[in-house]
Amino acid sequence: MSKSSLKVVGIGIQLVTHVTLQTSHAIENADEVFYLTADDASEEWIKRLNPKSKSLDSHYSTEISRKHTYNCMVTEVLDALQRGSNVCLVSYGHPGVFAYPMHEAVRQAKSLGYRAVMYPAISCEDVLFADLGVDPGQGGCQTFEATDFLLYQRRFDPTSHLILLQVGVIGITALPKQVEIPNRKGLHLLSEYLFDSYKVDHQVALYEASPFILSDARIEWFCLSDLHEIGFTAISTLYVPPVNKRSPDTNMLISLGLLDAEVHQQMQQSESLFEAVKCL
Predict the structure, then answer these.
(1) Domains and CATH numbers, the chain
(2) Is 70 a catalytic residue?
(3) What number is the average pLDDT over the span 110-125?
(4) How far apart are CA 267 and CA 209, in angstroms?
């Protein structure tokens, strides 16, 4: 195996404060650093940490698809590996969440015999849990990319938390700066699909994590029926709280030993007797 290696890291959502020691060490000690960031301040911080850093933004073009753009980024990273460099690939947020080039770089590097690892980081979903007070362990949580959610008519449980990412760019395959955002038609289609599971006045939230520690996240609550009128951006997330909780399955409660079968039968008999008395 080659001595060259690839470390794929994320710098979280809030500038510097979300960076782990593991990530900063990887950036600082790499022979070459490639990065994709969401703001100029993050870019400057990476360059100060390692002057041998280069942005991959130059690969974006209005003339080619995003998929081809991402593959060009991966090729540049692999070229550095093949030159014998220890490479660090840096992304905004979590490097494994909505990050095709990061996963693809790891996959291809390993297939060529290089050591490649991805370090965990804070994603926008992690910050959403904190800012909105959402516990995914309470009722479960489902996360989808909004366009994928509609295209494949994803099945979901409305009694669980629902998180839809990239809501403002539903159905948009071009670079965001080339098209009007949000896509109102896409929002109309999304609301119609959600109306099958939620009431029109169900309260939902637009959420955008703040990249700076001294500023608040953007949180706007509104009725589901107003979805198409909201000013979503390319980074907006839609949070849909669960509807009324469902009742546990009685047979499963008994099977798991959480409910005594005999006690349950006595309760049923008592309820039947109560109903019979009410009818007299």
Answers:
(1) 5-122 (3.40.1010.10), 125-240 (3.30.950.10)
(2) yes
(3) 97
(4) 49
